[in-house]
Amino acid sequence: MNLSEQLFARAQKSIPGGVNSPVRAFRSVGGTPFTTQSAQGAVLTTADGAQLIDFVCTWGPAIHGHNNEAIRNAIAEALNKGTSFGTPNVYEVEMAELVKDCFPSIDKVRMVNSGTEATMSCIRLARGYTGRNKIIKFEGCYHGHVDSLLIKAGSGALTLGNPDSAGIPESFAQETIILPYNDKDALADAFRRWGKEIAGVIVEAYPANCGLILPREGYMEYLRDICTEYGSVFIMDEVMTGFRVSRGGVQEKHGITPDLTALGKVIGGGLPVGAFGGKEEIMNYIAPLGPVYQAGTLSGNPLAMAAGIRAIQLLHQEHLYSHLESATRYLCESVSNAAKKRGIALQTPHTCSMFGLYFTTERVDRFDQAQHTDTNKFAQLFRYCLEHGVFLPPSAYETCFLSTAHTPEVIEQATQVICEGIHTL
Prior knowledge:
Helices cover 38% and strands 13% of the residues. It has helices spanning 3-14, 69-79, 90-102, 115-130, 155-159, 170-173, 184-194, 219-230, 249-254, 280-283, 302-314, 320-342, 367-370, 375-387, 408-423, and strands at residues 36-40, 43-46, 51-54, 108-112, 134-138, 176-179, 198-204, 233-237, 260-264, 274-278, 350-351, 354-355, 390-391, 400-401.
């Protein structure tokens, strides 16, 4: 038994399932999860000394790689001044200004501690602002473990074969309308039936918790238009895509202005953080200005803010996004070609620094199509890559990420391993 196995055995005695987040348990890919000892750049080092090229990137935040020196120095400088104040601090003001600069749709922003808190607050705010109760979400979109949104979700819920969670009252679920993504007709029908009751529509701009699904042309624009028509709040969950697909997220790429935006991941620079923001008239409904209560003891934590500020500043480097885009495209095209040569059906949807792997013959536009992927083939590929120094997400339904630390040499090495893995299937 190696050290990782020993640590996991110990963990199972004190932590449910031995992990603090379900997908880390390797249940869908088999084997025992490794324990990370340290991380630098694009590489994880396990407790047993193995080095792995990382395409999980702490599930998105590490866009500048692990243990980035500039971010680490920013944290160290803030640490010397204190870890938490319980009062306003200078970092949160600068962070708010940076977020507003990158996202023109955001007039005001409130910091929280996770993406789940951000989406939960958006839902409460939409209901408080409109005086309505129903929310539309889409199949396969994961918005954190919020009671009213953990219905036909992606991420760990899908991986574990349990899209609906126990412990959620049926009455909560009845206020959530579930629709297929990329289906304009279904959206129109829902609004015709419940339009006056719909407080808001929340969408993962690019659903990235059931693989990676890209919108059909005009779909995001249609979402914006129908919310405007019926007076519902349009909420874009950009926790995954914000600062990842561009500095201004999916809404910048599509030229769309949502009413509210949920953010997280990158803006913490590797530390726990989330945020939500939007139109001033809606944000002013939050306490202390308005009747919608939302609070957090550690919200705007100075260490997380300092790390996030530096992470966002680094995103202004010239050609950063074009380099990420070209590296991702090269990897995906190489893997696709390897699958074609092997006669294996494989879809590799990608955008900038994100990509998915679907072992299926058809393009994936909806949650039900994502479920057609051959999870056994993915598990085989995962295990091959892990044994040969490449760490893919331990689930067929998660998105892979690149960072600026994935140099051409690192990408070439990883691409070779993944292609070799394809040939063993």
